[in-house]
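Supplementary Note 2. Why include the ligand at all?

Several targets in our set were suspected to adopt different conformations when bound, so apo predictions alone were not considered sufficient. For every target with a known small-molecule partner we therefore ran a joint prediction. The input for zinc ion is given below.
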Amino acid sequence: MTDYDLKIAGGEVITAADRMHADVGIVAGRIVALGADLGEAARTIDAEGLWVMPGGIDSHVHIAQYSGEGIVMADDFASATAAAACGGNTTVMPFVLQRRGTGLRQSVTDYQALADGNCHIDVSFHLIIADPTPAVLGQELPALVKDGYTSFKVFMTYDDLVLHDRELLEVMRVAKREQALVMVHAEGYDSIRFMIDHLEATGQTEPYFHSESRPDIVEREATHRAISHAQLVGVPLMIVHVSSQAAMEQIQWAQAKGLEVYAETCPQYITLTAEDLRGLNMDMTGAKYVCSPPPRTKTDQAAIWRGLETGTFKTFSSDHCPFRYDAVDGKLNPQARTSFRWVPNGIPGIETRLPILFSEGVTKGRLSPEAFVALTSTNHAKLYGLHPKKGSIAVGSDADLVLWDPTRKETIRQDILHHGADYTPWEGFEVTGWPMITISRGEVVAEGGRVVGRKGHGGHVARGLSPVASQARGDA
Ligand code: URP
Ligand code: ZN
Ligand code: ZN
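The joint prediction is reproduced in token form.
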């Protein structure tokens, strides 16, 4: 007779609030004990020299999402969640994209079917509202919030997704009534279309010009507009994938005024710049870095770091949005050579998010280990209604853990990764600090860079209301 199914012994437990030497006792997928001399377990993992942290929660990933005629995302749920597990994550939050003309409930059903039985770790969906019809706003969205889809993203750009100001306001009003959290992609549609048309007309069509078509000015303007709309309605707002100092300053302005504005940034905005989009002398390799908003300048990187260090950003997500580079259904589709306009937007990063932030942040002394846990796990759980089930090392929480070697040196290379893309934007990037073992609800799902769990172990997690959204309830 043993006390635990699994015991993690001898490691240093790091949470968003604390660090301590403690063993972790696990029964039926949950943490049941923390401390010394815990007793016998059916299996014990020796974590001497390792840090035991809550598994990463990546609250911004795109998996198997419709991406336009002839374009196919490089990951399905099996490959994306396997890669995420190998990168130290235990929960990912993909988007259910509503295509115009399709109901929201139908979109959820279709998307859920792609995930069912295929996930290595847990997933929890956000919604993307692209067609806010009266039926969507009046019936479907409220019902889905009650079913645990408690956050959704709206876009201020992209032909197929853009919501204009009145629509944004109407959607925000429903979010307030239903206590859902609104996430916004803040780049201005008309300014970008104006820039694209001008660049194409003057023959500036290589992938690099993607970055010139959406300068920080259009991100700053849209960020301010989104904040103003949220203020008008009286609803909290999460601004995702913030790339520039200019946009960040709008967020800091709002936060200083006491507005409930939250922000996320991503690895690409602390490690890549627009120069990467030039590729090798303006060739198509720049397409590997095409994402929106685009990577900016070293000055912007330094500003984003200050935002991470001082709490402007609550979450650090990957915005994993993978396309194959050398593929007709990916970055090098036939139209892409005619203009950057046709290069699918997005880069892969689900497996490299944690090592990059750890190495650049904790190893280089910019972030404490506790801040790293908050930015990569706990704050995601808290903001999106998964806490304390996820994002914690506490009695009663799911045993979602990563055993981390803070001293291990690795070089990121495509051939050690598990995603479906055929490249990584961080090829050759050296890191110190690496995930050794990932445990999802008490089961080892990845170990030593290999997937050891089973497809179907992961399932969908319905969420509670975001505490920040439910505090703000009222009549708008
Ligand atoms: O380029 C990007 N980021 N593609 C993903 C979709 C989005 O806007 O997050
Ligand atoms: Zn976006
Ligand atoms: Zn995204």
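Residues 1-476 form a domain with the TIM Barrel fold (CATH 3.20.20.140). The longest strand covers residues 401-411. Comparable summaries for the other entries are listed in the accompanying table.
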